[in-house]
Amino acid sequence: MRSLWKTALALGGLALATFGAAGCNSYKYFDIHVRFDGATYDVVSADRVHTVAITVSGADSSSFGLPDGRCPNRKPASDLLDCGVFEFSSFAESGNLVFTARAFEGTNQTDACKSGDGSVTVPVSAETTIMRDLNIAKTGPGCLGQ
């Protein structure tokens, strides 16, 4: 009788752990590769960019800037137009995430200093890591290139 109770308790604990874990969220990782569009930006106009601001909307939301020196890529012997990959994590399970990048010349994040933007819509899927490209196209002269 005692071993029957132990077995019942063990099975009950296993069922609780299984059903309890079913409701837990798990992270999705979005690896977004950012580049300046080579058809609209050259190295001179990309080098004028001081700040690239990222906004996330849709199934999740956030805003942040890419680190200084990373976008444009100012590392020695690197491609100035290739900003590399940033990773965004989310508990979103469905819908879309829209990643928008805005490039600003100077330190002012105003429309007058915006030289380019781009966005990519990423459907949330069952994949744990989702990779996409985000290209920034030149849309104006910015405040340094006038």
Description:
The chain is of the alpha+beta class and about 150 residues long. The chain has one domain (about 25-140): Immunoglobulin-like. It is built from 2 helices and 7 strands; from the N terminus they run H-E-H-E-E-E-E-E-E.
Structural class: alpha+beta
Strand proportion: 35-45%
Order of helices and strands: HEHEEEEEE
Per CATH, the architecture is: Sandwich
Uncertain spans:
4-23
Largest sheet: 7 strands, mixed
* Radius of gyration based on Cα positions: 23 Å
Task: Report the CATH C-level class.
Answer: Mainly Beta
Tally of individual helices = 2
Helix content: 10-25%
Main attributes?
alpha+beta, Immunoglobulin-like, 2 helices, 7 strands, elongated
Give a quick rundown of the structure.
With 146 residues, this protein is of the alpha+beta class.
Q: Which secondary structure elements does this structure contain, and how are they paired or packed?
A:
Blueprint: H1 2-22, E1 28-36, H2 43-47, E2 49-58, E3 62-65, E4 82-90, E5 96-105, E6 114-123, E7 129-138
Parallel strand pairs: 1-7
Antiparallel strand pairs: 1-4, 2-3, 2-5, 5-6, 6-7
